[in-house]
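2024-03-11 09:14:02 DEBUG pipeline.ingest accepted 1 chain
2024-03-11 09:14:02 DEBUG pipeline.ingest length=505
2024-03-11 09:14:03 DEBUG pipeline.predict start
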Amino acid sequence: VELAGILEERVGRPLPPTLVWEHPTINALARALEAAPAPEAPAPVQPRAAADAIAIVGIGCRFPGGADHPDTLWRLLTEGRDAIGAVPPERWHAFRAAGKSASGAARWGGFLDDVAGFDAEFFGISAGEARLMDPQQRLLLEVTWEALQHAAIDPARLAGTRTGVYVGICVSEYAHLTTAALDAVEGWTATGGALSIAANRLSYLLDLRGPSMAVDSACSSSLVATHLAVRSLRSGETDCALVGGVNLMLLPALTVAFGQGGGLAPGGRCRPFDAAAEGIVRAEGCGMIVLKRLSDATRDGDRVIAVVRGSAVNSGGRSGALVAPNPKAQEQVLREAYADAGLDPAAVDYVEAHGTGTPLGDPIEAGALGAVCGAGRPPGDPLLIGSIKSNLGHLEAAAGVAGVIKAALVLRHGVVPPSLHFEQPNPHIRFKDWGLRVPTTSQPLARRGRPARAGVSAFGFGGTNAHVVLEAAPAAAPSEPEGRAAHWGVPGLAPARGPGGARAA
């Protein structure tokens, strides 16, 4: 960024702060400085049939700050609460014994209150198997059940159906614990620690016959999972999809690694797009959404929370470094997502950004949003951008679905909550020129005589980019069902209590 500023003074014309990432070799940089590059022609917009729209009909979540339901999450967001805190005393005993948590960025995070409790009996799982199950698998079972309750869908009626499961998941730290001593390894150790089983166990429990897969593209995992599920529903491969992501921080190694690499915010605050942005704050949680084709949801009388209009996924390829973002690839994934949605990118009202709060990542992401979604907007009508990471921290494999859930709630309520810790704009982001604005108080979505629209971005540190385009539910969508949501029974399981009814370690 500093080099771009020096070169800007030397050549006497504005240069983007992302200059070196767009042109990562000396020769490429020299060519870019010799003459202003020609403006890139936007990808052609191909409208899609209305039947391709995908409805979000249910949400389940377990996020820091007690956000264990869409309603409590919405209150946390609109009240502008920060769920980041110190590492709980029961976590990372060896780390604390070594004295490494006394100070520094590694002492902060977004943590769940309880990651050990699990009602194994409710799910028909023996105590011995449950003990060796990764807590991420246990959390997925509970939150998926809650998402189906929120959708008023009887899990028993999904048996034998073409329902797909797509789960973003990156790490299995529990497997390191259960395999540390060979004499303690049991038959259930393999399935308990396998990432694939995180999705497969859901399909097994509910007897689902659609695709069942774990998706790992790092921080974009659950948004890539959403993209895959949308494609599967559109093609007719599946008729319903359970989509989400999970992330738990059971060991300190990754936090220490990110800290030593300079990626963590020393003050324990995520400051997206702010001048004081200094790094990420790691967090844990789980989110799940239930998807159906909009035509099917309307036929079945489902409540439609929001609609997925389009999505896209790409890779940054060979950028400046393995973990360095590629600005052009970020622009391209935006163009492809809005083309897939059949929409002009300037017609989006809000973007839930990846927004990690890093000095480099924020200007690159803002530059891409400005080039694609900010271009052509009236001067007094900037694109609102925000990041749930300012409230919860970076949920990594679950970050994408957390963004989808927030964006869906924004469209349902017609309000954009404040993005926290935004005090002084990052000087390398040209907010006015790029047509962007970060709301610091709750902002109503502008009424434009059409359904409101929101985008969601997620970028994996290995280069996998994803963007999903949402739209407010059709005005004719059924109102929220009365009395339909209940703890439905699955044959062989206790129907009278839900997974939160009795929690046993």
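2024-03-11 09:14:41 DEBUG pipeline.report The chain is about 30% helix and 15% strand.
2024-03-11 09:14:41 DEBUG pipeline.predict end
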